Amino acid sequence: MHFKFVHAADLHLDTPFRGIAAHGPLLTRFQESTFRALARIVDLCLRERVTFLLLAGDLFEVKDRSVRARLVLRRELERLHVAGIEAFIVHGNHDPLSGDTGTLGLPSSVKVFGPDWEEAEVRREGRRLCRVQGVSYPDVEVRDDLSSRFRRTGEGFSVGLLHANLGGAEGHANYAPCTPAGLGSRGLDYWALGHVHTRGELTLPGGGLAAYPGNPQGRHVLETGERGCVLVEVEDGGTRRRFVPVDTVRWHRVEVPLTGVATLDGLMGTLSEAVDAACTQELDGHAVRVVLTGRGPLHRELARPGALSQLEEGLRAKLAAGHPPVLLESLRDSSRPELDWDALTAEGGFARTLLEEARALEEDPGALTRLWEEEALGSLGQKLKRLGVEVLETPRKEWVSRASLLGVEALHEEDGA
User: Chain-wide mean pLDDT for the chain?
Assistant: First the structure.
């Protein structure tokens, strides 16, 4: 038995992209990007002649889905319907069933799973190709393990379609929590999951597979890199998976060292080159967060009031005028001052004493331990524990080195002020 399907999730249609520093055509490209990603998913289904499409929850950005978003979804599903491609949908925490007004119908080839577990069969020429099981969120918060309702019901390839947090993934609300062991015990061949926006897959106990395709369109600077869906080819009960990017605007985090850059115009050129290198692929647009790192002579210049924001303003205008246009999300300074450590040591004074004391502690583990056990530090540790802060029981010498450098840098900044 051979067939193909596409697994997508977390479309978040009609994400407004409020708060981004863009206007006019560039802002429009971002606001259209979730719809464009859906269209590219459908294009993939048609091009690969898949049997069906799976959408694993959070199709809409908000519970009260906009008319525009619903009309776009219907239009794209109608394209699949005309081509004889079925679609299976579950709803998640962003688009629970309670937010559906019921005023817009979907093609008959679309199966939307309800709040109770159901199983549907995919059949071709009178033969069963696959079983698809699913359950939707009735409302925003679902704390139960919905996967416990799933079960193998017979022979043949079986898919579980679910919006869930597998293994307590960080950064996502712990809705419909489940475990690898729990999914494996249900006996299904492929778990088509949604909710976690980072692409990943896991082989389950018993041989099944659980997969997150990630969201098809990044929506902020924490969702960097390619975004898309998964094309799954099933043959003789096994699967081959291929990730397919469908995003039309892409987010990046670009680090640019100040080392060796002596002038502001030189820095502007370096920043532009670094962004150009990161945004090589031809898309509708890119968005970047640029972080200045390292040590260089411009650190003090950029530390002056208003200097960084003025540099950011100039860089934003330059990048927005490029092709494709690039949105500068922010310019951040994590650089450090350029210091001549030998000269500081030769000058003597408190800076030299601080460095020498730190070096002595690093070279004498016993002295570092005794310092850690002093009454003042011990009392501080107890206070932090009472506040719920995790405190390490043993010190690390790299902390001493880092603290001494920060101290000397602070002294240097004061002297230069």
Answer: 89
Q: Which of 338, 340, 339, 334 is nearest to 256 (CA)?
A: 334
Is the pLDDT confidence value at 414 over 60? no
pLDDT at 416: 52
Separation of alpha carbons 417 and 413, rounded Å: 6
Bridge partner list, 159:
132, 190
| Cis status, amide bond into 324, omega within 30 of 0 | yes
Structure tokens given for 321:
């005028």
Tens digits of residue pLDDT in 11-36? 999 998 876 777 778 888 999 999 99
198 within 8 A of 211, measured Cβ to Cβ = no
- Convert the pLDDT of each residue in 56-114 to its tens digit: 999 999 888 899 999 999 999 999 999 999 999 999 999 999 988 888 899 999 999 99
Is 301 within 8 Å of 307 (Cβ atoms)? yes
Q: What is the pTM of this model?
A: 0.83
